Amino acid sequence: MNEKYPYPIDNSQHIPSTLEEAERAYNLLGEFKEDLPSADTTTFLDGWFAMQFMGIAMHPDEVDEWPADVKPYANEAWRRHYIGEINEDQLYCSDSQHQGLRLKLDGNLRCYAVGTLGDQTGYISAMNDPEHGNQPVLTGVGSMAYMYESPRKANYACRHLKLDKIEIYAGSPDKDLECPPMTGIPVEDLLDKEVVIQTEEGLYLYRDGKTLGDSHVLACKYMLYADNVEQQIQQVKTTLGVTWKWVDYSTLIGTRPNEQ
To answer: Which residue(s) pair with 138 in the sheet?
Structure first.
């Protein structure tokens, strides 16, 4: 296992965030076991990475020694590699194995992201703009970097940022970077949606940012991408240990508090 923090993580979109997530990906791929070539690339890679994450796969170079029940997956991985469908990093997926061991030993997969925009490289963070609300920025200050719950969630949260390069690292920043303070990050023009924040108990965050209640009408409305809701939720999870989620407000219109 790579124990030198921080270290870069590749193919984060395929690395599970939890054992339960890994099991789901592996079980889904298992539905194609009789005809593995029919599984689409994403389904195969998600399941293949899950096998390494859970530690039920051997080294791909030792395919002849794999148990009969899982050997077909290794053969299929090599087949896809030979035809150029998956690259060498995806074939060996060592980062997924590292993260699985890390979860087992450390109990978390916390990470951060570094973005490059032109000649500026900094940690991905955010600042509150009085006119436009919470806006994504690059910062050179390591302590201001967003901490994500897992590499996959970091990948998802950053997918709409228009950066030349995004790199995800395990652990926490260990130094500051030479980046102008609060360099704004352009955002992809995705199909945004109005959302509200909901707690595990089903309560909504109200407009004052403090009060919780069961009325979605009184809840504060955010734009999912423009307000960086995913990143804010990750930060709350990291700093406060509280799990919130966003709910598409359009699905709540016309319902009563106890009908959701």
So the answer is: 124, 183
Task: Give the model confidence (pLDDT) of 97-111 as tens digits.
Answer: 999 999 999 999 999
Could you tell me if 146 and 164 lie in one domain? yes
Give the 3-state secondary structure of 180-200: CCCEECCECCCCCCEEEEEEC
* CA 107/CA 253 separation, integer angstroms: 39
**Structural tokens at position 25:** 């990906």
- φ/ψ of 18, rounded to 5, equals -145, 165
Q: Are 50 and 22 in contact (CB under 8 A)?
A: yes
- CA-closest candidate to residue 179, choices 206, 209, 144: 144
Phi/psi at 87 (5° precision): -90, 180
The confidence band for 113, taking pLDDT boundaries of 50, 70 and 90, is very high
State the DSSP code for 111. E
Q: How far apart are CA 194 and CA 248, in angstroms?
A: 6
Q: Which two tokens stand for residue 67?
A: 């148990």
Q: Are residues 177 and 96 both part of a single domain?
A: no
Collect all residues with Cβ–Cβ distance below 8 Å to 145 and sequence separation of at least 6. 112, 113, 123, 124, 125, 139, 172, 173
How many residues are given for the chain? 260
Q: Domain range holding 121?
A: 111-184
Q: Which of 184, 212, 230 finishes a domain?
A: 184
Spell out the alpha helix ranges (H) of the chain. 19-30, 41-54, 71-82, 88-92, 94-106, 151-157, 229-240
